[in-house]
Specification:
Shape of chain A: globular
Radius of gyration of chain A: 20 Å
Order of helices and strands of chain B: HHHHHHHEEHHHHHHHHH
Number of domains of chain A: 1
Strand content of chain A: under 5%
Number of strands of chain A: 4
Structural class of chain B: mainly alpha
Helix content of chain A: over 70%
Shape of chain B: globular
Oligomer: heterodimer
Largest sheet of chain A: 2 strands, antiparallel
Distance between the termini of chain B: 15 Å
Strand content of chain B: under 5%
Largest sheet of chain B: 2 strands, antiparallel
Radius of gyration of chain B: 21 Å
Strand order of the largest sheet of chain A: 1-4
Distance between the termini of chain A: 60 Å
Number of helices of chain A: 13
Helix content of chain B: over 70%
């Protein structure tokens, strides 16, 4: 039983940022803009917010500091994503190229700035954000062990974002309009929706969530940041596709990927898996391979937003 | 003269040059903000790039250009045929592993031709790796960008696993040294004394020229491009568009794979590190292809240019600058070249106005 709790608690650390970033990607793609810059935005968000944590650690109480850092991560994420929005919406640029530019820029910028400011590329911080046990709730049998012990505040924020995102996407006028812009922007435009504005909002939401995702990915699993989020932005992209652009399935996909990541790094200490003695590489490859297989079999009736990746051309109405 | 100014090639090239100028300006601003006192000196070092270290610097430029000519060709060839090959990184590392594996383990092959066999192996392996996204694109209508990203990670993890299983130097956590299959230097090492340049650069340039001839002068190349421009129209004209998409992707992958072989058999002390980081050479092919306008000949020059400023970035450390500023500049150049459509419109509008005014 302890093993299950351990794997579950660790999986959450990977799952939550994946959910958050993939939801960001969802808003962008649902508005019609493919955003492969999620990785770069995560790096930028993590860089600024962790620098903030490092600077103010000790002067501000940990949980408050963490929450303030989250706002900073979201803010810089939005600013950075505006570059992508401007290129792909106003300049009608190739969205993959623009995203690639951002992905190249972010780690170079983070390493360059860190080294110019503090001499080394690695930003160290003290991780005192873990909550060993939530009062009262942590005592509930099973559930308490699963989600109220050894947890970060980010878990609850992630769940909150998931719920809010589903409501926004499916139950609000805004969500309906956003989806219309991703499916058939010309039709949306003739119905009086401002496609440019909706797409800007979509990309900015992805910026906020990816920036936040960068921070909440790095903090629980590390005590330093050196300009990399280890390909999690791309993994989130895989989660988005595996989850077929739908919030509930994104959660499922992210949890599956998160668990694979956990197993890959801990398979030798989990009794049942240690007996199988499979190489960790197999668990590392599984999420990507699974995504490819899902793609191969679902693309004929894919749920991908139909207009994603195409610049909006009002003349095509 | 007017004909030249209005020609498409000129307008395309000037869009690239504009991106480069703005990218440099941005880099200079970054230097100016981070260390005003040394900014001019640092910037001049970037500009003098490969010339900084004399013949050695030039040799290093050609050495660094070799793998990115190949990944640039990979991305550019796919571009020409309407595909975005973001998977050059995976194809590159799979090719690199295959080359190293053959070089270390295929002891039955005579030393004289071992390097050649290993390079062919790299070429084939890269092609096979690209077969997967190519097949998915052609027959299952899967977006090649997403499939290639997945293949990048699968390739990286698989190569790490295979290196550990087959050609592992445990003490250094990297692949073994392929001592028996180093690409010949053919005198280049005496010409560019102290650098790592070798026959690889000549191979890369030859492959680029072949790619140019195939794309521009053969029916086969024309068909590949036609399917890129308009899949349905080429299908209607009787071409096998599925086969052509598959082949385009495989050829692109083979180029990247060969690039991996050329770099890791260069005898420069470079080994495959067992770390979970994607091979940067693959992504560096993207700016090279964009700057070279996907034209194989243009790509040769673009790759030498990118290598040139990277050498400059290395020497810039004398001014206490961090070489990452080069990546920042390259990122700015790519970002701006994403606007190339806009630049091109502006340039052609500018010349149109001028001729009309006369």
């Amino acid at each position: 039983m302890d093993t299950i709790y351990f794997v579950f608690q660790n999986s959450l650390l990977f799952t939550v940022p994946l959910v958050v970033v993939a939801l960001g990607g969802m808003f962008s793609e649902r508005s019609g803009i493919v955003n492969i810059a999620l990785e770069g935005i995560m790096v930028i968000g993590a860089f600024f917010s962790i620098f903030f944590i490092k600077t103010f650690q000790g002067t501000i109480p940990p949980q408050l500091l963490f929450i303030l850092a989250m706002f900073i991560a979201m803010f810089v994420g939005i600013l950075f994503s505006l570059l992508h929005a401007y290129a792909s919406i106003n300049m009608k640029a190739n969205q993959t190229i623009s995203g690639t530019a951002l992905n190249l820029f972010a780690p170079a910028f983070a390493v360059y700035t860190a080294r110019m400011v503090q001499g080394v590329s690695q930003i160290d911080f003290k991780n005192n954000f873990r909550i060993p046990k939530v009062p009262l709730l942590g005592d509930i049998p099973v559930i308490g062990n699963l989600i109220f012990q050894n947890v970060y505040i980010t878990t609850y924020i992630g769940i909150g974002i998931l719920v809010v995102a589903s409501i926004i996407l499916y139950k609000t006028r805004f969500g309906l309009r956003l989806r219309a812009c991703g499916e058939h922007p010309q039709a949306a435009d003739s119905a009086g929706i401002n496609v440019i504005k909706m797409r800007y909002i979509g990309v900015m939401m992805s910026g906020a969530l990816a920036g936040l995702g960068g921070l909440i990915f790095v903090v629980p699993i590390s005590t330093n940041f050196s300009g990399s989020v280890l390909g999690y932005g791309f993994l989130a992209l895989a989660v988005l596709i595996f989850g077929q652009w739908k919030p509930s399935r994104i959660l499922f996909a992210a949890f599956f990927f998160g668990m694979m990541k956990t197993i890959a790094s801990t398979s030798t200490i989990i009794p049942f898996l240690a007996d199988l003695s499979l190489d960790p590489a197999i668990y590392k490859i599984t999420p990507y391979l699974a995504t490819l297989i899902v793609l191969a079999f679902s693309s004929k009736n894919s749920a991908a937003p139909r207009a994603a990746g195409e610049p909006y051309d009002a003349g095509k109405r | 003269m007017n004909k030249l100014l209005k020609s498409k090639g000129f307008q395309n090239a000037s869009a690239s040059i504009l991106s480069i100028i703005f990218g440099f300006a941005f880099g200079f601003i970054v230097l100016l903000i981070s260390n005003p006192a040394n900014a001019v000196g640092g910037f001049l070092t970037i500009l003098s790039g490969g010339f900084t270290g004399g013949m050695k610097g030039l040799g290093q430029t050609l050495y660094l250009a070799t793998p990115i000519i190949m990944t640039g060709l990979s991305v550019g060839f796919a571009f020409k045929t309407g595909l975005f090959n973001i998977g050059a990184s995976g194809q590159f590392i799979v090719g690199a592993f295959t080359a190293v594996f053959i070089a270390v383990r295929a002891t039955f092959i005579p030393t004289e031709i071992l390097w050649l066999v290993a390079l062919i192996g790299a070429f084939v392996a890269g092609g096979l790796w690209a077969l997967v996204p190519g097949f998915l694109k052609a027959y299952r209508n899967v977006n090649e960008v997403i499939a290639s990203i997945m293949m990048n990670y699968i390739g990286m993890y698989l190569v790490n696993f295979m290196v550990v299983q087959t050609v592992f130097d445990a003490a250094r956590n990297q692949s073994m040294t392929p001592t028996r299959a180093i690409i010949p230097k053919v005198g280049l090492d005496t010409l560019f004394n102290g650098s790592n340049v070798n026959l690889g650069i000549i191979i890369a340039i030859l492959v680029a020229i072949i790619a140019y001839i195939v794309l521009e002068k053969t029916t086969f190349g024309y068909e590949l491009k036609a399917c890129g421009y308009n899949r349905s129209a080429s299908q209607y004209a009787g071409m096998n568009s599925k086969r052509n998409i598959l082949l385009s992707m495989v050829i692109a992958g083979a180029f990247a794979g060969l690039g991996g072989g050329l770099l890791y058999l260069a005898g420069s002390g470079k080994h495959i590190q067992v770390v979970d980081i994607l091979a940067a050479e693959g992504f560096n092919g993207i700016p090279v292809a964009l700057l070279g306008l996907s034209n194989p000949i243009g790509i040769i020059f673009a790759a030498i240019f990118v290598a040139y400023i990277n050498v400059g970035g290395f020497y810039m450390q004398l001014y206490k600058f961090v070489p990452e500023v080069i990546s920042i500049m390259v990122a700015a150049i790519i970002y701006l070249s994403a606007f190339s459509l806009f630049f091109r419109e502006q340039i052609s509008a500018f010349f149109k106005k001028r001729t009309e005014g006369k």
